[in-house]
Amino acid sequence: MRIAVLGAGGWGTTLAIILYHNGHDVTLWEYKKAYAKVLNKTRENKDYLPGIPLPKELVITYDLGEACTNKHMIVSAIPTQFVRSVFKQLKKINFRNTTFVSVSKGIERGTHLTVSKVIGEELPDLPIGSIGVLSGPSHAEEVARKIPTAVVAAADDEETSKQIQAAFMNSYFRVYSSTDIVGVELGGALKNVIAIGAGIIDGAGFGDNTKALIMTRGIAEITRLGLRMGAQKETFSGLSGIGDLIVTCMSRHSRNRFVGEQIGKGLKLTQVLKSMTMVAEGVETSRSVYELAESYGAETPIAKAVYEILFEDKDPIKATYELMTRDMKPEHYH
Q: In the chain, where do the E strands start and end?
């Protein structure tokens, strides 16, 4: 297939390499003209994926129209808050026979839409079922080194999910299929908020017990809100739910856990974000989750505490104490 990958960050670059080695004709779009030229010249993404060579035949361009024209599949690896502005530029291209795949893990600020919904809004003439997602426990740094990884391809249309599955799957990158696009996308987005909470626990000096508490009760919150938004419960027990939550809360590669850790150590959010070159999707998503939980009437005390620590300057120690002293409840409740 002819495939375009939009976004030359670590994950977009890694997926472009996978698709190339799977036998596809791949174009990688980088929005900065100067950096696209650097990538073409050096054949290495030193800013986001150092040490991994880019295949000579991989096309790299800063021309968005050129990248997206006459493609069988377009993979969006653009940070969530920038997706809409990019796709607004694609309205004049005929995408009647194109499948779209979002690999971003976030919720758009203000609209509370997942990325697949944003793409659908900006390209309303797309055939029904032509938008899918790819999500799961998959740090680019490991996948690029061919460390065994498994993820989930999801779309409302089963054939679309299987098409995405077939395009990406190989001996070290296993892909399962699903028709629960709502659950897969929400799992990928909401776990980033809990991962910030897990990082706060690390930075504040709490122990493994506390982190296990945050992770376990965190997946309960994700499931509770996800069900109210139309997801399937079993999705959150799988790779895009508990699987992605585990790796994001535990890994040294996790940007969201890093943000939380630095805040747990006493830094302010603005200080942490200024020190980072990559986007931590969970920061803005925490705002959206706080607002979504309010509108759906879902109880999400951990996500609420993360929001208050990030945006209302709440003390992490006080927030933890308040979580521990909430009213007594059974473990499983609705």
A: 2-6, 25-29, 44-45, 49-53, 59-61, 73-76, 99-102, 131-135, 149-155, 173-178
Given pLDDT bands bounded at 50, 70 and 90, which one contains residue 334?
A: low
Q: What span, in angstroms and rounded, lies between the C-alpha atoms of 333 and 290? A: 20
| 49 & 171 share domain | yes
Q: Is residue 200 part of a domain?
A: yes
41 part of the active site: no
23 and 165 housed in the same domain:
yes
Helix or strand run (H / E) with residue 274: helix 269-274
Q: Which of 105, 191, 211, 304 is catalytic?
A: 191
State whether 58 and 125 are in the same domain. Answer: yes
> Is the same domain home to 73 and 213?
no
Mean pLDDT of the chain: 96
58 is in which domain, residue-wise? 2-179
- The rounded distance, in Å, linking the Cα atoms of 331 and 334 is 10
Of 179, 210, 241, the one marking the end of a domain is 179
114: DSSP letter? B
CA 74 – CA 39 distance, rounded (Å): 20
The predicted pLDDT at position 273 comes to 92
**Closest of 105, 118, 56, 49 to residue 77, by C-alpha:** 105
Is the domain of 199 the same as that of 91? no
155: number of Cβ within 10 Å: 28
In this structure, of 13-17, 91-95, 163-167, the range with the lowest mean pLDDT score is 91-95
